[in-house]
Amino acid sequence: MLTTHRSDNLLRKGLKLSHLRLLAALADTEQLTQAAAAVGVTQPAASRLVAEIERIVGAPVHERTGRGIGLTALGRALALRAQRIRLELDDAARDLAEIAMGGVGHVRIGSVTGPALDRVLPALQRERSLHPNVSVEVVVLASDALCEQLLAGRLDFAVARLPEGPRTEPLTFVPMEREPIALIARRGHPLLRGPAPLTLQDVLTYDWVMPSPESLLTRTLMARLHDLGLPSPTQRLLTASFLLTLAVLQRSDAVAAVSAATAAQFASGEAAAFDLLPVDIGVEVEAFGLITRERVSLTPASQRFADLILGQPAPR
Length: 316
What we know:
Elements lengths: L5 H7 L4 H13 L2 H8 L3 H15 L4 E4 L2 E4 L1 H29 L3 E7 L1 H18 L3 E7 L2 H9 L5 E4 L10 E16 L13 H4 L4 E3 L5 H12 L9 E2 L3 H9 L4 E5 H7 L7 E3 L7 E10 L6 H12 L5
Parallel strand pairs: 3-4, 3-5, 7-8, 7-9
Antiparallel strand pairs: 1-2, 5-11, 6-9, 6-10, 6-11
Helix pairs in contact: 2-3, 2-4, 2-5, 3-4, 6-11, 6-12
């Protein structure tokens, strides 16, 4: 005896793409008026669609709240599937457009700072030489923020680290390499003028510009100092902004811990405004990798770009 799948039942009962689009919009906005506008229907039409959904599934999918509309547990489960279907259809449309136009496409990449410089940038240069009509959007943020954007469908893939703690998000991770950390300061810094070999104790007498205490880099570095029996550095500025970090270093005697790849980009050459401090802090941050949404196929242009990044040789 054959078993009828639940999806077949929903389709037979009349569940349509318009229902799923509205549910996805309700999950995003929690306002019926805004959801209706997002899918291009009037509010009365949206109310009818909600009523049809509840008739089809045989249970309420929404409830009134003080600020608008909240989805029930059943409604949230169905809306989550609807959002995934919407993302799949958006990706399918991009696939068709790329194939029809031949060599044209748009790639949306997220990356943490170090890999953005030594992995994404060389891949971007290579891709532009091979496919000049492909446009690329690169977002540089912390790993947690990048994974949120990836799950929301605003990125095709990310070069980052998976969020810590238990994960229920459907993400696939291909590890690439661990990231060594180095210390940089402005060119002409007093630490670079001393005759004796530089030590970590010497560097700890200056301010350090660091990300937040919760960041992986800060926690890893603080653990290393603790293991060496050294105090925590003075941190008068905490920021995740790399541009602000560089600006502070240029205008003060502060130092900063950054990835070795980042240090190599900004602290090399005669015209560089920064120098690498000659002290080995012995710290590596856990491996970054290529993160994609599970069971989601990349568009041809995005897959080509991801392959270039994965095939990029690791810098020395």
